[in-house]
Amino acid sequence: MFGGLAKSLFGSSNDRYVKSLKPLVAKIAAFEPEMQAMTDEQLAAQTVKFREQLDQGATLDSLIPEAFATVREAAKRVLGQRHYDVQMIGGIVLHRGEIAEMRTGEGKTLVATLATYLNALPGKGVHVVTVNDYLASRDAATMGRVYGFLGMTTGTIIPNLDDAQRKAAYAADITYGTNNEFGFDYLRDNMKYERSSMVQRPFNYAIVDEVDSILIDEARTPLIISGPTDDKSELYIGVDAIVKQLTADDYEKDEKQKSIILTEDGTERAERLLEAAGLLQGENLYDFENTQVVHHLNQALRANMMFKRDTDYIVKDGKVIIIDEFTGRMMDGRRWSEGLHQAVEAKEGVNIEPENQTMASITFQNYFRMYPKISGMTGTAATEAGEFYDIYKINVVTIPTNVPIARVDEEDEFYKNTQDKFLAIAKKIRDHAAKGQPVLVGTVSIEKSELLSEFLTQEGVPHKVLNARYHEMEAHIVAQAGRLSAVTIATNMAGRGTDIQLGGNLEFRMLDEHPELVEGTPEYEAAATRIRAEIIEEKQKVLEAGGLFVLGTERHESRRIDNQLRGRSGRQGDPGLSRFYLSLDDDLLRIFGPDTLFAKMMRNNIEDGEAIGSKWLTKAIETAQKKVEARNYDIRKQVVEYDDVMNDQRKVIYEQ
Q1: Nearest Cα to 104, choosing from 417, 605, 495?
Q2: DSSP code of 217?
C-alpha cells in the first residue's frame, strides 16, 4: 500500500530515470537552430570535427548534445523524418548500454541512428543486430543514407558472401547483420589457420534490435558448426518402422517437460520387434552393444509422438524444415542435433541426410557477453527485466510514447472447445470487416492459421494468410494490414519489423502496383501523389471504423508475445481494439492450466457455443504464463551454465 502511495507521489524509479534525462534532451534541442543554419557540407563536416575532439581527449558523453542534434538534422534532410524528444531519450538509453522498451510504431529504427553514429565516431566499428536478413538489408539501405550523408560507411552481413566481402563489411564504421551471421563468423574466424584470413575486428559495441527475441527466445539454441559422420540411414528407417507399430500404452509422455519414455511392456514389445528386424544384438535392449539403438529408438519416439508436422516443422521440396516456435518463421539450414532431425526425416519418408559432429559451438548469451558494451531495443522487455540483468547485466528502461495510447484492451473470452471458439472468431471478424475495420489475427501455429482460414472462407470473408510457408511475401502483406476491411491471419506476429499504417503503406503500394517506375522520375511522382491522396482518404474511414482490431486466437506461452501482438494496434495514438479468444483445448490451458476441477466445472456448465469472460480466468491464465516463463528461464540459465565451462576452454584455445 505504501509502495503504491509513494509511486503516485514520486513516480516509479523508471519515471524518475526518464525525467532525469529531460535536461540533456533540452541541451540537444538548443543546438537545433545552429544545425538548421548549416549547409549540407558544413553538417557533413561535423563528423571530422567530433573525431578531432575525441583525439584531443573529449569523451563520447560530452559530445551527446551536439552529435545527436547533428543526426536529427541529417535525418530530417535525407529521410524527411525528425526525431521526437522521446526518441532522443531512447538514443541516450541505448548509448548508456541499456535496453530501450519502446512501443510498436514509435520508430525504433530511427532511434538507433543516434547511438550508432555517436559510438561509431572512434572508428572501432558498431554492430547493429537484426532478426532477419530482410531487415538487415532494409535498415542498412535506409539508415545508411543518413550515415553516408555524415561521411560514415555502412556494411551489411548477409548469407552467401565470400570472405573478402565479409571483411569489407566488418571494416565499415557501421555493420548491419543478423545474430546468426555475426555468431557464425566468430566461430569460422576461430577455425582459420592464419590471422590474416579472419574477417571480424575486435568487438566494440552492439545494438540488438528485437532484443528479447534474440537474447531470450533464441538463447536456448546454441550456434553449431559441424562436419559429416558416417551414414546410418538404414538404421533410422528400420527403427522408425518399429516405433510406428507401438501403441499409446507402450509409452508415457510428459508434454510439460517435452519428454517421452517406454513403459515396461513397451520396452518388451520394442525388444521383440527389434529382434525380428535383426537390429538387436543379444537379448536385452539395454546391453552395452545396443547403446546406439536405444538412442535412435528414443529419438524416433520423440519424432513420431511429440513433434507435429505444420507446428514444429514443415516439409518443403522433400526437406524437413524447422519452424521457429516464437516467430513462426522457417529456419532454413538449421537442423536438430543428436539424430532427431534424421528421425523426423525417416518419419516423413524424405531423403535422410547423414548426421554431423560438432566442430565449434557457442550460445548467444556468451557471444553477446563478449562485447564491452551492448544495448538493445524492443516493444516488450519489461516482463523479462530480471533475466536481462542476471545474464547480461543490462537494465530495461521503458520509454514513454510520443502520443498517449488510445487502444482498448478487452477481457479474454472463453469457449468450451476449439470448434466453438473458431466459429465465434469467424463471425466476429466478419462483423468487424463488414463495417470497414481492418482485423489482424494472431495464431500460434501454421495448422491453426489454415484451420481459421477455412472457417473464414465458409463465412465468405476475403483474407490473407501469413505464415512460414510464404515468408517471402510477409513484408508486403503486413504493410497493407491496416487497409479498409483488410483481414490478415499471421502466425506469431513478433518482430515482423514492418509498420502497420492505417489506410495502407505508400512504399509497398508503389512496389506492388507500379514496379516498373523508377523513384525520382515525373511518372513515379505523379503515381505517388495519387496513391498518397487515396491513403489519406482511406485512413480517415479506418479511423471512423475504430482503427486496427487485433484478435488473438489463443494465449502464447510467453506474455511478451501476447503484448507484441496487442502492440501492433494503436500506434502513434491511433485508436484500436484488442481481445484474446481461448478454449479449454488450448495447449497453454491443457498443459499448464488451473487444475482439472476448474476444467470439469467449465465443461459441465458452459453450453455449446456459449462464451464466458471473467477477471478471475484472465488472472489464472497469467499465472500459467508466469509458470512457463520461469521454466523457460531455468532452461536458458542451464544452457548458459553448461556453456560457461566450455567458454573458459574456448577462450584459452581461441586466444592461442
Answers
A1: 495
A2: I
- Copy the grid coordinates of residue 405: 495510447
Q: Using H for helix, E for strand and C for coil, what is the string for 105-141? A: CCCHHHHHHHHHHHHHCCCCCEEEEECCHHHHHHHHH
DSSP state letter for 40: H
Task: Give the residue ranges of DSSP H helices in 21-59.
Answer: 22-30, 32-37, 40-44, 46-55
541 CB neighbour count, 10 Å cutoff: 15
Collapsing DSSP to helix, strand or coil, 287 comes out as coil
The vertex-566 CA angle with 581 and 484, nearest 5°, equals 90
Closest by alpha carbon to 507, among 194, 80, 151, 191? 80
- The model's pLDDT over 201-237, given as tens digits with 9 standing for 90+, comes to 999 999 999 888 888 877 767 787 776 677 778 888 8
**Each residue's pLDDT tens digit, 54-85:** 999 999 999 999 999 999 999 999 998 999 99
Query: Are 636 and 214 contacting, i.e. CB atoms less than 8 angstroms apart?
Result: no
Average pLDDT over residues 492-513: 75
CB 219 within 8 A of CB 363: yes
Residue 382 confidence (pLDDT) above 60? yes
Beta partners for 174? 126, 154
Asked whether the beta carbons of 438 and 486 are under 8 A apart, the reply is yes
354 contacts 345 by C-beta, under 8 angstroms: no
The mean pLDDT value of the chain amounts to 85
* Calpha distance 471→324 (Å, rounded): 13
What pTM, to 2 d.p., does this model score? 0.73
Give backbone dihedrals phi and psi of 127, rounded to 5 degrees, phi first: -105, 125
Residue 243 has pLDDT above 60, yes or no: yes
- Cβ neighbours around 49 below 10 Å, total: 12
Place of cell 481461448: 582
C-alpha cell belonging to residue 304 = 513420431
DSSP string of 596-653, one letter each residue: HHHHHHHHHHSPTT--B--HHHHHHHHHHHHHHHHHHHHHHHHHHHHHHHHHHHHHHH
Which residues, in sequence order, are bridge partners of residue 466?
A: 490
C-alpha cell recorded at residue 571: 500506434
Handedness of CA 371, 113, 495, 466 (dihedral sign): negative
3-class SS at 467? coil
What would the grid cell of residue 78 be? 535525407
Mean per-residue pLDDT for 472-480?
A: 74
pLDDT of residue 326 exceeding 90, the answer is no
Q: What is the mean pLDDT of residues 406-426?
A: 87
The confidence score (pLDDT) of residue 1 equals 47
